[in-house]
Amino acid sequence: MPKQDFVIERYDPVTERSYEQQFTAEYEPGQTVLDCLNGIKWAQDGTLSFRWSCRHAICGSCAMKVNGRSMLACKTQVTDIVKRGDPIRVAPMGNQKVVKDLVVDISNFLDAFERAETWLQEIPDQDPPSREYHTAKEEFDRWSHTATCIHCGACYSDCTVVAADPKFLGPAALAKAYRFVFDSRDSQKHERLEFLSEKHGIWDCTRCFMCIEACPKDVLPMDAIMELRTEAMREGITNNHGSRHSNAFRGGVRKRGRLDEATLPILSAGVRLGAIPELIGYTPGALRLLKSRKLIMAAKRHGANREGRRQIRRIFDEVEAEKARSAVDAEAFAAERSSALMAH
Amino acid sequence: MKYAFWPGCVSRGAAPELYTATKAVAEHIGMELVELEAAACTGAGIISDGDPYLQDVLNARTLAMASKLGLPLIDICSTCIGVHSLAVEKLENEEYRARINERLAPEGLEYTGDTKPRHLLWALFEDLEDDRLRSLIKRPLAELKLGPFYGCYILRPERVLGFAEHPHRRRSLESAIELVGASVVTYDGMTKCCGFPILTTNKRNSLAMAGGHVGEAKDSGADALVTPCPLCHLNLDAQQYDAARVVHRKLDLPILHLPQLIGLAMGIEPDKLGLDGHVVNTKPLLHKAGVR
Amino acid sequence: MLEHGVLIVGSGLAGMRAALEVSEDPDLDVALLTKVHPLRSHSGAAQGGIAASLNNSNDEDSWELHMYDTVKGADFLADQDAAEILAREAPENIFELEHWGCAFSRLENGLIAQRRFGGHTQPRAVYAADRTGHALLTVLFEQLFRRGVKVYSEWYALDLVLRDNVCQGIVVYDILTGQIDAIAAKAVLFATGGYGRAFQTTTNAAASTGDGIVMAYRAGIPLEDMEFVQFHPTGLQGSGILLSEAARGEGAHILNAEGRRFMEDYAPERMELAPRDIVARAEQTEIDEGRGVTDKKDSVFMDFSPIGEERIRYALPSVLHLARDFAGIDPLQAPVPIQPTAHYSMGGIPCDVDGMVRLKDQNDRPIVGFYAAGECSCVSVHGANRLGTNSLLEAVVFGRRAGRAIRTAVPDLAPTRIEEGDLQRAVAEVDGLLKSDGPERAGAIRQELREVMMVDCGVFRTRPQLENCLRMLKNLQERYQRISIDDKGWQFNTDLVEAIELGHMLEYAEVIVTGALAREESRGGHFRKDFPTRDDQRWHKHTLAYRTDDGPRLAYADVNMQPQYRDPFPLEERRY
User: Fold this and answer.
1) Which residues from A are below 8 Å from C39, CB to CB?
2) Which of A58, A191, C143, C316 gets the most CB atoms within 10 Å of its CB?
């Protein structure tokens, strides 16, 4: 049987010490990182601690970092990730407190679901039908992929925003909220979108795609977050930085075909162009910006050429005049979703 | 080597040094760039927040313009290549493509699906003979230890970026650093988000991300970072002093645009590469590299 | 010492459903205790569906047909009063789950979709693609969360405390801190799952180690019908990971090395959609007679090509992923090698249709305040063989009924108490393991146990095999006394928990084998090659195994033939 070295990041809760330990495990082709961890635990070192249960990517217990990325140990075949001679590096999930070895405290991750109230909220004072609610197949197909979440936390572990802001709801809870926003059995669509548009919600996502890559199932969390943004704006929930930014950006492109530098974040971070004296006093960073000529360049308006601008404006007009825009948007999202799921 | 060239908004705005450096390098290696002057911003995933369909129309238009010229489309921005590549994928859906082509028809454009956009970073390795590419390196930067900083959209989602057919793209930036003779410094944040997309919505988080990555690279021994994304450059360079305050530490790490790095190694003079236009001073770095 | 009015042990479908039902009465103080987080429970691994005669895909179904299929599938060992309730109450349970937001797949007309399943004569499997258990588990957890039910997550139950046939509470071990404590409760419900981990090839999660069953057994309660273990015919070769029966429901074929649909020799009418015991035996026969596939000739092929790519992607996405990720085979391109795999535990803690645990002896004495539901229980609705989609149904129907019964009973129950002495056995067990320094490794014993159970107590059994198995088990039990564990720490000691679980496995395995050795007939999941036919004269009865120091003592109980709303289905030969 082939042998493989593992470097495992361990943590002893008694001494509160983190350390790396190397093990060598035998494996047969087809075996997984989890098989190797169990082989190590059962034959070499019973103190090695990690969670696992179902062995086939449905219980969500065994998410951990393997070679730097979060994944399910049970779903990761050794032969798929082994690089000649290199040990496989195994570490606990990120963005969560380590309890022991590869076991982390998932309570912050789970709290986000509670904060987002990710359970169905029926229409108040109305009895449910005697049989099932009718749910159009198109509606079901719109959200059913997000219901595949196994709450493993891989997305949360790799989320670049959670790393900067532990209060960020995170990809999994937002994707689950998406499902209830688009589930016609739920009565709280607008209220949910309002809550999700607040700080630590949909507008704090950086669109880095980490969650989509980390997800071992079909959830596509980031795509769900983007669709929530569109829906929130459609519902008129625009009194927030995110939708103002989107609208300002869009307005600039409409006008000049290019990003209007006045809306560039270095300028729109609470500072208006033309308020340069104010800017100078703003931060040491802004002062250096000025010296680098970047602001001046930004202020120098560029854009698409004249014909380009005419056509771009035509497109904006036509798209805005198109009837049933939300249906077209749904089509746009469906196109992306089906390609993403196909590739998954 | 002739390309339909989409410079992106930032290289024509707040990061003009990228445009300058790109032109200089292209000229040096004989890449002919036909600039798409009538093209529109990709929307950067921001127009799509409110209007995904509109963003797709704008990108289909740019792709169709390249196609009309019969040229491959080249981008110099991770965000642009990412958004263009995602549009290509969505436009594989025929019904959706037909709907979008209706918007392009008045201009005499049609997107047929035959344009595969590429980034300058990939084109260097895929369109230039390896020997020729290496022969152009006249001034190896052996003294420098450089950290790659990719920018999300040139790495993710993998499925739209042709990684399956071009596995080298996964570590193309490390390849570029090796090409110029510098050593590669790896660090956790090199494939993560710079924070730029939320700079206006959540400045503290955004700068914490940028500052975290820069600090980590510095701790790993990097003399500078190199990025194929001008938006990352804005957050890592232009915002670096504000980011330093958020992460409570001194940073002072120069951030190079990809063509600046390549240009330097090819012997192009620093002032022709816009290296004096950065917020973080690049002179000590140039000194260390033995340039001037 | 902790105290709750009602304590539910186990957080799968049955446990959560019961907890929700009890929580309807805000005065009752219900808590849920589980060794894995509720969302990690093994109910989530159920794939194909949950049965109910909704008639959404046709109009010929009825609860009576469902009941008949269940009784026949059970090889007539099911208690007919229980099978009747299962079938009658199925639709209302499905609608309730749907109203709570369960993500059931839909027909074009917006109604819940239904598909065919093995042993069911009508398309009555309600499903959520091929992750039905996961969809149900998720929705129950959402409701539990919403109602703020107290959850002791990653707490491990060690002992059931009974006094004069009255339940007092349980002894528990907090995995995070390593503290042993007791929780007193007027009513305790065990919903602790099945016991498939004693077999080498199994679909079961690591958690399915029969803990609750052994706790009840050690407390003096007999175990019912433990020899009936279901081997699922479509486990992935090697790992035994489940490929849903939904694959066959959607039209997949099973082929031997000659490329022939051999089910025509065994169940000419129902073919691949015969009940699981029959298909598993057919496969094992083909394999044993040299018509197996792959180099090892230890499996047969499941061929997905009759279904079509689009339908596979839509209706069987998990099956597609499982075959790719765990066998490296793309079902869209090639057939997948499958083999029988231990899947479901028909036996368990004897209880009535309201979940109340009963000794089922001559006096049919109840254990006051002690209830069981789900796979750990034996009501019995599945008799000698469970039909696919009836397990999720059992968990919700009888979880709900048990919850209701508890809600009614608890206000009249006397306060309970736990004494220092009640903790002794558990404390001694944990201390003993922490101080252990013997030469044996738990991992090696577990491995030998699982191998011998698979080989000698598997799809086919004979007296010599079972006798050998029993000898081996005695030996392993002795060696278990001499194990040592590596981890001597208190916090999150999975080494310790796994060793305790192994003790449970060694205990119940003996009950399985003893019951199998005694039962000289073949019925449902229990097949004796030396007694290959069903013998209703001698064996139309439930096995009850009592714990004694010399091993299990067997007794027997009648099968209930008294449904409430119709005549019982008479015993008949089982053909498909």
Assistant:
1) 59-60, 150-151
2) A58
